[in-house]
Amino acid sequence: MSHIMVEFAFDVVQVAAAAYAPEAYHSFVDYEKPHGFARFLALVYRPIPKVGPFRALRFSVPTPEAERLFLASFTATRERFRQSLDAVSAGRLRLVNTNCDTGRPTARGEYAMADETYDELLGRLADHAFTTVSEPLRANLLAYYGDVDSLPAGTAGERKRSATIRQDLSLLGTGQKP
Questions:
Q1: Listed residue (11, 8, 31, 29) closest to 20, CA to CA
Q2: Given Cys at both, which of 19, 58, 98, 159 links 50, Cβ 3.0 to 4.6 Å?
Q3: Distance between CA atoms of 113 and 119, rounded to whole angstroms?
């Protein structure tokens, strides 16, 4: 979703600067004019007054400061991407597991979806007796969970999930089969 928002924001900046995409680009990205349901939604959306509860639907032009921040972040991201490509070419790419919102390494409890994803990964690896776990992945999982005694244990479901995670981490750390 964030990729789509960046694409849209970039397109808005380009259109505002009158840098319209040529027809060849539309062919390249397989652009199609909206039809069917999308056109119906546009027909319904247009007459809605943009006041009161519908005020959020109103388009607002980004301020110069917001545009500057967006362009600066976009430039920084493009530069990091270029550096990563250079590192791949040189055979020395090392990707750090970074929270893209904060720029810091990922940590348990900061982002619920990341926690759920790590929990699911750990569970799936446990289902296969940790046979396919590489040492870097093992180290990453153990580092992510850190102190297993600090796992949430408020509700009965959380206690059960925490117990399963503790057991799986114990087996992962020792290399035993579940």
A1: 11
A2: 58
A3: 10
Give the angle subtended at the CA of 53 by the CAs of 1 and 43, to the nearest 5°. Answer: 70
CA dist., res. 71 & res. 10, Å (int):
8
Q: Say whether both 135 and 168 belong to one domain.
A: yes
Residue 55 shares a structural domain with residue 68: no
Per the structure block, which two tokens stand in for 50?
A: 């943009």
Reduced DSSP (H G I as helix, E B as strand, rest coil) percent helix, strand, coil of the chain, to 5:
65, 0, 35
pLDDT of residue 3: 56
Residue 100 lies in a domain: no
Q: What is the DSSP letter of 149?
A: G
What one-letter code names the amino acid at 90?
A: A
Q: With beta carbons less than 8 A apart as the criterion, state whether 88 and 130 touch.
A: no
pTM of the model: 0.52
Q: Encode pLDDT of 134-163 as tens digits.
A: 998 999 898 888 877 777 667 777 888 888
Percentage of the chain exceeding pLDDT 70: 76
Tell me if residue 82 falls in helix, strand or coil.
helix
**Distance spanning both ends of the chain, measured CA to CA:** 36
